[in-house]
Specification:
two-stranded antiparallel ribbon; 1% strand; mainly alpha; rod-shaped; 15 helices; 17% helix
Length: 486
C-alpha cells in the first residue's frame, strides 16, 4: 500500500508547487543559503546533480579543470563542501617558484605564464633571451632544471645565459686567452657544427686549401685528463709553418711567387708569378720552358744566356748573345738587321747567298773579323774577268767602282750610277746616264779625262755650232748643263 502511494506521488510530483524544503531535509545544512534545490537537482531523480561546468560561472571550468572530478576541489567526508573560498591557482596548486616572481604574481598570477590546458604549456615572455635555432626544440628542463632536494624553488629566474653555462667547453679554454672569443663568434644556434667562416681567421682557406680536411691542420691533441681536444689556435699563419721551404736562400714570403691554387703553378700566365719582377722577363721560348730547366740548382740562377745555353762560339763573341739571338728562336739571328750594324751591310745578291759563302769557318763558330772588301771573296773572278783586270794597267781592286751587288754584270748599271758614288768624279746625269760605257771607255784599260772635250772633240764641236766656240770644257757648261742636248 505504501509503495503504491509513493508511485502515485511521483507521478503527480511535477505538479507540486511547494518548496523542496517543505518535504525534504536540507542535506547541505544551509551551506547553499536560500538557493532552491531545483537549481542543481531534478524531480525525476535526486542524483546525478544537474549542476555542471556551464553553471560554474563564478569560477569557469576550462582546460584540464573540465575533466577534474568535483571531489578534487570540493573536499569533505562524509559531507562534501560545495561553497569554497578558493578561486586562485595557488589555492589548489603549490607554487614551485617560491618568491622568484613577486611582480608577476601580483599582476597576473600563475595565468601570466600558464594555461589550464596543461601546466607545462607556458606562455612566458622569453624576449630577454630569445630562443632560436636548436634552442626552440630544447626541453625547458635542460636550462631550467626542476627543484632539487633542499632547493627553495625551480630555477627559472637567475639562470646564467652564457653558452658555457649549459655546454661544456670542448676547446679546453683555447679561446679564453687574448684575443678572447665567444662561442657565438664561430657557432650558431641553428647547428652547433655549422661550417666555420675561415675568412675571420688569420689565414684564409682558398684554392687547394679549401679541399683539405680540417684535421690536416687542426689535429686532436691529448689532454692531461686523458681526453682529447682539437687544436684550433695554431699560433701561426705563414706558408712555411706547414710547408717545407725548398728555397733556403729566399727570405720573401711564399705567396710572393706561389698561389694557393697549385704549389707548382708559378709561371706561364697572367694569374701566376710575374717573372718581370726578377728583372728577367719570360718571352718567346722562355715563356714555354719548364721552370726546372733554369731553376734546377737554385731559385736565383744567373740570368745570362751562357748560364743555360752552351756558347757555340767558344767565347769569340764575348758572350753578347742578345746582339744576334732572340728568345723567339735561337736560329733566327735577324741576319739583315744584324749586318746593318756591321761594316758589311747585306745588299743585292749578298742578301740571298748562304752565310757559309763568306763565313766558311763555320765549324769554329767565328762570325767576326772577316774582310769586307770585294777582292777578298772575288779574287778569282777578278783575275779571270774580261777585259783583263791584271794586265799592264791593272784595274783597281775596289770592285765597287764598277760593279754593284745587284748583279756582277753589267759592270756599270746606268740606272744606279745616277745615285751611285762609283762615278763621283764625273756624275752621270741626263744623257750621260743612258750612254753606253764603251762610248767613253773605248779602251777599258785607260780612263777618259773628266772633261767635255775628253769625248767631244773640237772638230765635232765646231761642226755642231754656227759660231766659234772655245776649246776648253768649262765653256761648254756655260750653255749646256751636263746631260742636256741641243
Amino acid at each position: 500500500m505504501a509503495v503504491a502511494c509513493c508511485v502515485r506521488l511521483a507521478a503527480a510530483h511535477p505538479a507540486v508547487t511547494k518548496p523542496c524544503k517543505d518535504c525534504h531535509a536540507d542535506v547541505h545544512r544551509g551551506e547553499l543559503g536560500a538557493r532552491d534545490c531545483g537549481t542543481c537537482h531534478a524531480t525525476a531523480a535526486w542524483t546525478p546533480s544537474t549542476y555542471g561546468a556551464a553553471q560554474h560561472a563564478r569560477y569557469p571550468l576550462d582546460g584540464r579543470h573540465v575533466a577534474t572530478p568535483c571531489g578534487g576541489c570540493h573536499l569533505g567526508r562524509p559531507r562534501v563542501t560545495f561553497v569554497i573560498p578558493q578561486s586562485a591557482c595557488l589555492d589548489c596548486h603549490e607554487n614551485p617558484h617560491g618568491t622568484k616572481f613577486p611582480k608577476e604574481m601580483v599582476e597576473s598570477g600563475c595565468a601570466g605564464c600558464h594555461t589550464t590546458g596543461t601546466w607545462k604549456t607556458w606562455r612566458a615572455d622569453h624576449t630577454a633571451w630569445p630562443l632560436t635555432g636548436g634552442h626552440t626544440r630544447t626541453p625547458c628542463v635542460s636550462c631550467h632544471p626542476g627543484r632539487a632536494e633542499g632547493d627553495a624553488a625551480a630555477a627559472f629566474r637567475g639562470v646564467p645565459r652564457g653558452c658555457d653555462k649549459c655546454h661544456d667547453d670542448t676547446h679546453a679554454a683555447q679561446f679564453r686567452a687574448a684575443p678572447a672569443k665567444a662561442c657565438t663568434d664561430c657557432h650558431a644556434t641553428g647547428s652547433w657544427r655549422a661550417p666555420f667562416d675561415h675568412s675571420k681567421a688569420k689565414l684564409a682557406v682558398d684554392g687547394a686549401h679549401a679541399a683539405l680536411a680540417c684535421a690536416r691542420c687542426h689535429p686532436a691533441v691529448p689532454l692531461r685528463n686523458g681526453q682529447q681536444s682539437v687544436r684550433y689556435r695554431l699560433g701561426y699563419a705563414a706558408c712555411r709553418d706547414c710547408h717545407a721551404n725548398p728555397h733556403p736562400r729566399i727570405t720573401a714570403e711564399c705567396n710572393t711567387c706561389h698561389v694557393s691554387t697549385s704549389w707548382h703553378k708559378v709561371a706561364g700566365s697572367s694569374a701566376d708569378f710575374d717573372h718581370r719582377t726578377t728583372g728577367f722577363a719570360l718571352r718567346g721560348r722562355h715563356a714555354t720552358t719548364t721552370c726546372a730547366s733554369c731553376h734546377d740548382k737554385g731559385v736565383r740562377p744567373p740570368n745570362t744566356c751562357g748560364a743555360c745555353h752552351r756558347d757555340t762560339h767558344q767565347g769569340r763573341m764575348n758572350g753578347a748573345c742578345a746582339e744576334c739571338h732572340t728568345p723567339i728562336a735561337w736560329a733566327d739571328v735577324r741576319v739583315f738587321e744584324q749586318h746593318r750594324r756591321t761594316r758589311m751591310p747585306l745588299t743585292g745578291k749578298h742578301a740571298a747567298i748562304e752565310c757559309t759563302a763568306c763565313h766558311r769557318r763555320q765549324g769554329e763558330r767565328k762570325w767576326s773579323d772577316l774582310p769586307i772588301d770585294c777582292y777578298s771573296c772575288h779574287e778569282a773572278r777578278y783575275r779571270t774577268a774580261q777585259p783583263d783586270h791584271v794586265g799592264a794597267q791593272p784595274f783597281s781592286r775596289d770592285c765597287a767602282l764598277c760593279h754593284v751587288t745587284i748583279a756582277w754584270k753589267p759592270a756599270i748599271d746606268p740606272s744606279l750610277l745616277r745615285v751611285s758614288p762609283d762615278h763621283a768624279a764625273f756624275s752621270l746625269t741626263g744623257s750621260h746616264s743612258a750612254a753606253e760605257c764603251a762610248a767613253c771607255h773605248v779602251d777599258t784599260r785607260r780612263r777618259k779625262l773628266v772633261r767635255c772635250d775628253g769625248c767631244h772633240t773640237v772638230a765635232k764641236l765646231r761642226s755642231q755650232h754656227r759660231t766659234p766656240v772655245a776649246n776648253v770644257a768649262p765653256d761648254c757648261l756655260r750653255c749646256h748643263p751636263r746631260g742636256a742636248r741641243r
